[in-house]
Design goal:
5 strands, about 350 residues, three-stranded parallel sheet, 13 helices, mainly alpha
Length: about 350
């Protein structure tokens, strides 16, 4: 499904936390789609959201290394800094100033209903950082700092995007229509879900998303895994004792099987139906072998390029600093207009 903003794809914004190595779920579910979007969008902006990472304690050296690791991985996956703006959130202070201004527009009740805060804080809510509670407003500022009219999001971020829309609308209700009523300064962004985006689940539990935080390394495919590791993880990936499904009906209630088929279809650019027709009724061993080889072919060049890019840290820092400068050239005049509308000197 593609909920197309109007005008279509003038500016797209998306962010990702520097919380470790990219895994296959990040790649198929988001980054591969960013690579496509950068060729369809006038201003594609991709942000490494290191301020968001600070909502829970981070080892400073590990955080800095994580930003550079992620930047190298994104470039290796195909993000082109000549076509896209790629930068760490912390190199553009306009985000945090706008976040404070929007904190004064957002309502406590709006933020308190965010389900991710409830899930992440758990029973120790009183010990959670204020940043963890308020970070959806910073997320809104990330988006609204630019003329964003499309945001690619997963299901777990839809609530935050709706909050962004509410904040943008409330801002103009309170302070006027922006430069014109037809074109508000803070644009309520549309949800952008690309039809090729894959929801990749754990290799050990098909009901859980593939995650960097999973204690089992066997539950995910990292984009830095070597060929043998990839083959071993797929060989050991959980399936079941039934034959390979022949129809969608026979795949029901088989989440691990559905996950592997979805991964293979996404890698090959094929439909689920064509994959089932290819392997229907047979054992899983040939399918797993084909899946492993498709993964090896996809990941090997990305892994090799990531290592080469990461070796030149100075060049990475220059590229990210340049991206932040290009981002701020867009956000600064917008922030100045917000300040003016709110009555600040």
């Amino acid at each position: 499904m593609l909920e197309t903003p109007s005008p279509p794809l003038q500016c797209v914004f998306s962010g990702i936390q520097p919380s470790g190595t990219l895994h296959l779920g990040n790649y198929l579910g988001a980054v591969a789609q960013w690579v496509t979007l950068q060729h369809r969008t006038a201003t594609p902006i991709f942000c490494i959201v290191d301020w968001h990472a600070l909502t829970v304690w981070q080892d400073p050296a590990a955080l800095r290394a994580g930003v550079l690791d992620l930047a190298a991985s994104l470039l290796a996956c195909g993000i082109d800094p000549q076509k896209s703006i790629l930068f760490p959130q912390s190199l553009n202070p306009d985000h945090v100033e706008l976040a404070w201004l929007l904190n004064c527009v957002a309502r406590f009740g709006w933020v308190s209903r965010m389900t991710q805060f409830k899930e992440k804080s758990g029973k120790n809510r009183e010990q959670a950082s204020l940043g963890l509670f308020a970070y959806p407003v910073l997320m809104a500022a990330d988006i609204l700092a630019y003329p964003t009219n499309g945001v690619p999001v997963g299901d777990d971020q839809r609530q935050h995007l709706e909050l962004t829309r509410e904040i943008a609308i409330r801002f103009h209700d309170q302070y006027g229509g922006g430069d014109s009523v037809a074109e508000p300064l803070l644009i309520p962004p549309a949800t952008l879900v690309l039809p090729t985006g894959a929801r990749v689940m754990s290799l050990r539990d098909g009901n859980k998303k593939m995650s960097k935080s999973d204690p089992s390394d066997a539950a995910r495919i990292d984009m830095t895994d070597d060929d043998d590791t990839i083959r071993r993880k797929i060989q050991r990936a959980r399936t079941d004792s039934l034959p390979f499904p022949e129809t969608a009906m026979t795949m029901q209630d088989r989440p691990e099987v559905a996950n592997l088929i979805g991964i293979y279809a996404a890698l090959r650019g094929e439909s689920i139906e064509s994959v089932m027709a290819e392997f229907a009724g047979g054992p899983f061993a040939p399918f797993k072998e084909a899946l492993a080889e498709s993964l090896v072919e996809t990941i090997r060049p990305i892994r090799t390029r990531t290592v080469a890019l990461r070796a030149d840290e100075a060049a990475l820092v220059r590229m990210l600093t340049d991206g932040a400068g290009r981002a701020r050239a867009i956000s600064q005049p917008r922030l100045a207009r917000v300040r003016q509308m709110m009555g600040l000197l």
